[in-house]
Amino acid sequence: MNAPYIIRSRRTFMAASAAAFASALWTTKGLFAEELMKTPLQTEGPFYPDKLPLDTDNDLLVINDGITPAVGTITHLTGKLTDTSGNPIRGAMIEIWQCDNNGAYLHSGTGNREKRDGNFQGFGRFFTGATGEYYFRTIKPVAYPGRTPHIHVAVKRPGAEMFTTQCYIKGEAQNERDGVLRGVRDLKARELLLASFEPIKESKIGELAASFNIVVGATPTQG
């Protein structure tokens, strides 16, 4: 992976990313006759950033106008936020945070702090679009002691409590030993936390694409 590729990508992807990657997502309001199963809640964990970075956009690979990209397998994470009827929820804030390729979080209490990748943003935000879509460019999650690879995901909406869950790699062997994931006893519900991280055929640098849809309850009516 070379720096010029990252620079060109950062200049262009912010404006077009959500629309381009949303093409594979659901777009029909009220499509489902039966209610969708809610995405299971998961713990926020101890490593939500205790000091937010100056850059909180949806590109976690490059900080502000830096030219040195983060280390890791580039992953385009997309998804759609809906209610249980399949209706898109727009204008909600999606936050993600994860450890870097060395297993260190953007947090003062993280392990491996001395090895933390200073070029990895570690945290990002995105407001869902008209069809509930969101998009992040990040790295494929890696394991750290005691946990299988995962990405923390939070949803913030007016009039509703923050919803927090975690996205896991489908087929990852360590999933079977992860106490947080296995804490979801319903196997169908657990499946909703798994995303396939698939190679992008057109990519010459080994990029991946993953889709993680989130289903939450309806936002309370404001009085």
From TrEMBL:
Gene3D superfamilies in the cross-refs: Aromatic compound dioxygenase
InterPro entries recorded: 3_4-PCD, Intradiol_dOase_C, Intradiol_dOase_core, Intradiol_RC_Dioxygenase
Domain Intradiol ring-cleavage dioxygenases: 77-105
Keyword terms: Dioxygenase, Oxidoreductase, Signal
Keyword Oxidoreductase set for record: yes
Highest taxon of the lineage: Bacteria
Full protein name: Intradiol ring-cleavage dioxygenase
Organism: Pirellula staleyi (strain ATCC 27377 / DSM 6068 / ICPB 4128) (Pirella staleyi)
Source species taxonomy: Bacteria, Pseudomonadati, Planctomycetota, Planctomycetia, Pirellulales
